[in-house]
Amino acid sequence: MAYFPLYVDIENKKCVVVGGGRIAAGKIRQLASFGADITVVAPAVCGEVRALAKEPGILLRQRRFAAEDIADAALVVAATDDGEVNRLVSALCREAKIPVNVVDEKELCSFYFPAIVHRGDVVVAVSTGGDSPALAARLRRELETCVPERYGMAAETLGAFRETVKAQVPQAAARKRVFERLLELFLARDALSDEEVRAVIAEETGIKGEERDSKAGKKGIKGEEGHGSCGKRNRDTGEVENRNERKSAGTGADGFVY
After folding, report:
1. β-bridge partners, 233
2. Which domains does the chain have, with CATH numbers?
3. How far is residue 47's CA from residue 186's CA, in Å, rounded to a whole number?
4. Closest Cα partner for 149 from 241, 32, 244, 230?
5. pLDDT level of residue 131 (50, 70, 90 thresholds)
6. pLDDT (tens digit, 9 = 90+) per residue, 54-78?
7. Which residues lie below 8 Å from residue 88, measured CB to CB, with a gap of 6+?
């Protein structure tokens, strides 16, 4: 049976990984890339896990698993080579209604780790419902060639202008057109300026800058500096530059209103 994809915020949330081997290390890295507060519980750990435990946000409890380890956890991963421990972790989590993943034990899982392509705020996930991790991995490799790093830059840059456009363009259909045009402008040269945003809004709304600013309380149009790694504005050019790397008229494919 296919599983419903659900994106959740785990930043600063307690996530528990039971196990200290190579597979556990992979789960730790994956959770850490989304800002989770990770607790690792294992009586013995490999060098990779020990090195990861030195990083901020990762706590190592080098001992056997205990029931209290899952208290207040947002999710739990069991990645041990001890079937009895894995079954205990699964049972305790299910009783406490905590999402649990037991590596290579489909019947003990309440959720699966998808194969992920991660580009900044853009995340593409693939799951086969636990049937074929090999197929999920292959699909991920294929997707990696279709989703370049610049898409993450585009998401962050457009996000820096999102609230401004929402305030300046009240009509959902017009906002949709504005964001689609701004995306094309950004992808043309990996940058987007205030002037370009003003021009697109003026063309789509038919309101000149002075009149629009007056209606918006004379706040003017301004991107949110410091928004992620792409919100930095060049003071000389006014551009927002990145330093790192079919729905209805009013709703985007990610479910947010345009």
Report:
1. 240
2. 1-113 (3.40.50.720), 114-147 (3.30.160), 149-241 (no CATH)
3. 43
4. 244
5. confident
6. 999 999 999 999 999 999 999 999 9
7. 65
Q: For 15-19, 70-74, 96-100, 228-232, which range has the lowest pLDDT when averaged over its residues?
A: 228-232
Residue 211's pLDDT band (cuts 50, 70, 90): low
Burial class of residue 89 in the structure, from the number of CB atoms within 10 Å of its CB (0-12 exposed, 13-18 middle, 19+ buried): buried
Greatest CA separation for the chain: 70
Specify the residue for token string 């009895």.
84
Residue 35 tokens read as: 């800002």
Q: What are 41's strand-pairing partners?
A: 18, 61
* Residue in this structure with the two tokens 């197929």, named with its chain if needed: 135
- CA separation, residue 170 to residues 127, 163, 209, 226, 230 (Å): 38, 11, 15, 25, 25
CA separation for the pair 202, 223 (Å, rounded): 16
Q: If you search the block for the tokens 């959902």, which residue do you land on?
A: 172
